[in-house]
Amino acid sequence: MTAIGIHDLELATGHHVLELTDLAESQGVVPGKYILGLGQSQFSVLSEDEDIVTMGAAAALPLLERNGIEGIRTLLFATESGVDQSKAAGVAALRLLGLPSGVRTVEMKQACYGGTAALQAAIGIVARAPEEKVLVIASDNARYLLDSPGEPTQGAGAVAMLVSADPALLEIEPINGISTTDVDDFWRPNDSTTAVVDGHLSVGAYLDALSDAWKDLEGRGGPAIGDIDRILYHQPYTKMAKKAQQRLREVTGEEISTALNPGDEVDGRDTGLETGSRYNRRLGNSYTASLYAGLASLLDHDDELAGKRIGLFSYGSGCVSEFFTGIVQEGYREVRAASHVEDVLDARVPVTVAEYRDLHNAPHGTSTDQVTPAVTTGPFRFAGVADQARRYEVR
Ligand code: HMG
Fold it and tell me: Where is the Hydroxymethylglutaryl-coenzyme A synthase C-terminal domain (predicted)?
């Protein structure tokens, strides 16, 4: 069988960054609650002239520069912070990226699971036509109400992945474990720009979905836990990955380490909980992109991955989840040498809490005509709304 999986991957994020110690202090909250309790140090904040389209295209651009566009026949854009009810965000991204018209483009949605849905659909397309490549973009702007418990878990980010036969980074294995349950833990109604969430219910729903997806994987003949070298989880905040690791430890009986922070006591086999959480700790929740930001972090901070099996748990509230596995390819370090994620994170411009609150309150997703102030310096910008349509510019 042809090996199919992720050939290359890149990450982009918002222009600004907020320190969670600043947010905590402004709220009279002990910073340790956010830094250790949630495992988050910062979150990205979008300026008014960027959105999921500009972030997604910015993530995809270096991939196309490195790999060319030959063979790309499909663009799958996963998001749960969509900017239109009808038109796929990927269509605007396709124009910004200069992709030809012979690329079918659709948007995929199921909360944070959408990125994995797009990846699995891409694998199906390549299985049918191995000479084709699929550009998968997962891009989100995670927004909760100001002063709500979800606020410190906001964030923004996009991951673009090129899916192909004979991938250079990660071959995705065919057996997966799935769990879908109808639960109202988190959703975003059509008339709201922020998510509605029952936070503690969502944590329980996530953990139960993990148990169920793992059991489904086991029942379908998936790899034993002892044959999985590293494990990545969807990270709404990095402490959630630690909770997930604790649950998987209980379900499997395998002593996998739950040490999340540098210096934490290592209480079992190291499966990369800390190395896979370094980017997410600084990005905040990037919804559909979060699991794949974790993958980028692991690949960039672990030199011993060649030939190793990674388990990946994807969770999207509502809820749909999947546990699947992949084998890291021999040349992954050469591919990742081109990655600039640390630079992208370091380049963000800090905002004060007052500036962040103003940006949060600025119009989002409105169809009222407007011209956005030019703030960003990236390759693409959201110029505003004219005749009720969103306008994007290439710099
Ligand atoms: P909260 O209720 O304000 O926080 O919000 P808490 O009181 O539960 O405290 C959080 C943790 O900090 C606790 O640790 C405290 O002990 C600890 P835990 O019991 O969880 O291990 N703590 C401290 N630690 C150190 N020093 C201190 C200190 N003080 C307290 N001084 C909540 C937490 C998660 C509910 C909130 O952030 C929230 O609503 N978040 C949004 C929802 C969310 O992220 N859910 C996660 C699962 S659902 C999911 O992943 C899907 C999602 O990505 C969306 C999608 O799929 O589209 C969200």
Answer: 181-248, 280-358
